[in-house]
Amino acid sequence: MKLSEAINLLFGKGGPGAGPGKIDKTVSAAAAQAVFQDCCDFVCRPVTTGGGVRADLVFIDGLISAKAIAAEVLRPLTDTGRFAGVQSGKKTVEQMLSGSMYGPAARRRDDMNDVVGDLLNGWCAVIFDSCAAAVTVEVKSEDKRSIDAPKEEKVVKGAKDAFIEDLRTNTGLVRRKLRNHDMKIREVTLGTESDTRVNVIYIDGLTNGGIAAEVMRRLNAIHVDGVLTPSDLEETLADNPVTPFPQMISTERPDKFAINLLEGRVGILVDGLPLGYLTPGTFAQFMKVPEDLGNHFLVASMLTLLRYTGMLLTLLLPGFFVAVAMYHQEMIPIKLLQSMIDAKQAVPFPMAVEVIGMLVAFELLQEAGLRLPSPVGDTVSIIGALIVGQSAVEAKVVSPVVVIVIATAGIAGYTMPSQDMGSALRLCRFLLVLAALVAGVFGLMLGVILLLYHLCSLESCGVAYMTPFASSSRGILQALTRPPAAKKSRREPALKTGRR
């Protein structure tokens, strides 16, 4: 085929001026070859049916299963007994759709755009130029990552399966958790270049219809080249993309995903991402884990309170230490103050420099441990925490009490169930240390007030971010503890669900 002919087929009668992505609607093998010109993985094979009708089998190698094409398409299509007497393309299409194909799903396509879309989704197409029609058959490749235990969210007492990169596998995992015919799955395609499938999942009659409609509206308003990373979706769906605090719950656990659907939230699954997203996301939800429902309510309540204590320690402890050590030494007990003075006399750096330097060193160690391979990352963390830290104390570079404070704040930060929330708290920790450095406890309190004001001003799909802390004392109690199952009589009022 000449280059000019391919361009005309690709862009239609208007030529290149008609705009990129234009495809001639007429179904033909030549049109398919023009669309996938210079694509070495595109295969077009002429075939003759059992009735003697000529056709073209087209598919994209790597997206399909060769065994499935041979067994479910070519074998029945070339069977002389099955297609005996069927000597026209139109009748062959009707015969294929009436049950003569072995594939699990088959569609008639009269528009080349639909044929191209099916090919890119792992289907093959049998094109009949004589009637300008095609039959597409699902023959997706089974080459995908197997379902394994969650890697990032540790499971202590719960299901040991996790989302993978295949969208239909992920929706199947959710279906196995919730065998409910009211659970609806709506699909949109995002990305002008990637054509990424995104599924919106909610329980009809339980989830607030306004929230589901708002999620669909925001998804349809997204105009990006591709949805390939979590930020492509998170930052565009967030009410306030500037804040570092997460506004959508992300999880790799189908059980956590299903639990939040039952509470009235809307779920989002993206093809190619092994994560599920849930909205609205409130501050209290980022402090919960599915194990709270599996443990005894007293144990779960104690662990929840422990997480909130860890949150306060990792956020406030370094700033409070800087404020007290630099401006309010009278708040320190005499013996402890004498010990700090003795240790500080040989250290040449101011207290603020020590704290900020240790915080930066802690972040560097954490980043190095995450980016390096597991054996090397663990070794770096051990060397940095033990050898370098101990050597710094012995060399009088930092005070032992500073190391204790920063280590306590860092360990407390690891109690956060959500890494996104932990990252936001670490950023705010730096800002509060700077506020304490400028104005002591007064600066620290001003920073906390501004932080609370910022959190109270946030919303997620119309739901206040600090729900239920801003609602009632009962809501605060339910957020800080896990009530017994017999006492849990209603869902979160802020979600305005259709069922109690």
List the helices and strands and how they pair.
Blueprint: H1 3-11, H2 29-35, E1 42-48, E2 54-60, H3 66-77, H4 89-100, E3 106-109, H5 112-120, E4 123-128, E5 133-138, H6 167-177, E6 183-190, E7 196-203, H7 209-220, H8 230-237, E8 249-251, H9 254-262, E9 266-270, E10 276-279, H10 291-294, H11 297-327, H12 334-344, H13 351-371, H14 374-394, H15 400-413, H16 419-457, E11 459-460, E12 463-464, H17 473-480
Antiparallel strand pairs: 1-2, 2-4, 3-5, 4-5, 6-7, 7-9, 8-10, 9-10, 11-12
Helix pairs in contact: 1-2, 6-9, 11-15, 11-16, 13-14, 13-15
Please tell me about this protein's structure:
The structure is a single chain. By secondary structure, the protein is of the alpha+beta class. Helices cover 48% and strands 12% of the residues. The strands form three sheets. The chain has a five-stranded antiparallel beta sheet, with helices on both faces. A five-stranded antiparallel beta sheet has the order 6-7-9-10-8, sandwiched between helices. A two-stranded antiparallel ribbon has the order 11-12. The relative contact order is 0.08. The N terminus is likely disordered.
